[in-house]
Amino acid sequence: VEISSLSEKDILVLRLDLTDRSSHEAATNSVLKHFGKIDVLVNNGGRSQRSLFVDTNLDVYSAIIELNYLGTISLTKHVLNHMIQRKRGKIVTVSSVMGIMGAPLATGYCASKHALQGFFNSLRTELTDYPEISIINICPGPVQSQIIQNVFTENLAKSIENSGDQSHKMPTARCVRLTLVSTANDLKEAWISDHPYLAVCYLWQYAPTWAWWLMNRMGKRRIQNFKSGV
């Protein structure tokens, strides 16, 4: 049995609303006041989506971008200011395999993750004078979590009725371990997924024409299942 060496002063829990961007500076300052420094920022807030674009209200897309994208870069901005002063730190962002490919029923979610990928890949190029500041993008595939129970649907007031079976997804603990390994080794991007999802990522990267063909076939079946409530 491992015994933690952490004490009360080593732990600080703060409530944070990513959509309340005016609160992010104060939250950052509270952490700095308690610990004196921030070594690692892990951006792990967000919501997914299960709805067809033609049925979905535009305010759902606005809410997804507000939370997944703007909320994340707002918090990053305040923490990065501190890391630049120290000339060191790690910014780890949980993107998704949906940040490197497209998929049906998740147009808004994919868009927000593509936005994060583009933002952090661009930010990395602005930090060449700070080699000790790492920008790390984590792209998980399906992972066991409560993300499905909390997805956006066709409108903001509607919740999902059937969250489905999660037994085929990667266990949460394994995803966390691989994320920590990626962070410790300063990987710029890590795809954390089991097959066949990982194989689709490689197809999307290296054989996009085949990926389009496969996704169209898989997507048609997925949409049929979605419409029939599976």
In short:
The protein is α/β, with parallel strands linked by helices and 230 residues long. It is built from six helices and four strands; from the N terminus they run H-E-H-E-H-E-H-E-H-H.
Content-based structural category:
alpha/beta
The largest beta-sheet arranges its strands as: 1-2-3-4
Number of strands: 4
- Kindly estimate the percentage of residues that lie in beta strands according to DSSP: 5-15%
Question: Largest sheet, if any?
Answer: 4 strands, parallel
Any idea of the CATH class? Answer: Alpha Beta
- Share of residues in helices: 40-55%
Shape designation = globular
What sequence of helices (H) and strands (E) makes up the elements? HEHEHEHEHH
User: Which CATH-level-2 architecture?
Assistant: 3-Layer(aba) Sandwich
CATH homologous superfamily placement? NAD(P)-binding Rossmann-like Domain
Provide the CATH topology.
Answer: Rossmann fold
Number of helices: 6
Radius of gyration computed on alpha carbons: 19 Å
State the low-pLDDT regions, or none: none
Q: Round the mean pLDDT to the nearest integer and report it.
A: 94
Number of domains: 1
